[in-house]
Amino acid sequence: MGEEQGQGKKIVVVSASGGVGKTAVMVNLAAQLAQRNNSVTVVDADLSFGDTALALDLQPDDTIKEAAERKDIDNIQAYLMKHTSSVKLLPAPLRPEHAELISPDFLEAALNKISHGSDITLVDTQTGLTELNLRLLEAADQILVIGTPQMAVLKNTKLLLETLDLLGMKEKALLVINKFISPTAIRAEEISDLLGVETPVYLPRDDKQMDHSLDQGQPLVLNSPKLAFSAEASKLAEIIGFDTGQQQIKDKGRGILGRISLKGMKRRRMKNESIS
Ligand SMILES: Nc1ncnc2c1ncn2[C@@H]1O[C@H](COP(=O)(O)OP(=O)(O)O)[C@@H](O)[C@H]1O
Ligand SMILES: [Mg+2]
Hints:
Blueprint: E1 9-14, H1 22-35, E2 40-45, H2 52-55, H3 64-69, E3 81-82, E4 88-90, H4 104-116, E5 120-125, H5 131-139, E6 142-147, H6 151-166, E7 173-180, H7 188-195, E8 201-204, H8 207-216, H9 220-223, H10 228-242, H11 262-275
Parallel strand pairs: 1-5, 1-6, 2-4, 2-5, 6-7, 7-8
Antiparallel strand pairs: 3-4
Helix pairs in contact: 1-10
Magnesium ion (MG) binds next to helix 1.
């Protein structure tokens, strides 16, 4: 379709568990992609409790809710707010009860329209595989799956990746393990084996700085570019900005279940803990 011409890349950020850092990673990625001269728009599709505006220190007046009420697809650009980094944002509704006023059809149409005017459109989501999220994932050129190195999160992330595989979307998924600390009870190669992804992107944990930056509404990569988190996030931006960012999937012979079991990892972890 001619209309599709000039459409930028759509990247949807998802996770199986909450609090893993979808919003934190996304705003930092957005700021870095903007620094590399991409026009970047963020769509906050966490329609009930979206906090991207807060993370960017923006105080929305109109949001996607007002745009949906007015069916204002043609003017959707007018609802975008601009951060000092030049990242633009379509904010989530201000109240959770307004979430249901935004239909999946409207959101998808808004996303398509916005991505015509942006090199990269990043979409933040509510945790989990909701119907809306599945719709967004289908529309995505790339899916950023965010997890953390905790047993329960890894278990759910594995299920999420399996589901993406079943839906034929695994090829466009890029796995990011956020809040990574090394040495840790669960080693990087164990995570890689378990999740069946050769080279996940690891983003380090930085409790003090990350919380502070989100509270200040300034992405960490802008205020503290020398931090380990910023350096690693920069590599992620490079992967996303310059190629399709595909990761190598581990030996598919045994399927995506990977070669080691959660139980085995748990046993090893307990052994390590009792030694130290
Ligand atoms: N790399 C990190 N290091 C330390 N804390 C982090 C990191 N990434 C996110 N956080 C913290 O984790 C919490 C949840 O992050 P958030 O982005 O809101 O998660 P989600 O959007 O997935 O629910 C926040 O307090 C945030 O500061
Ligand atoms: Mg969030």
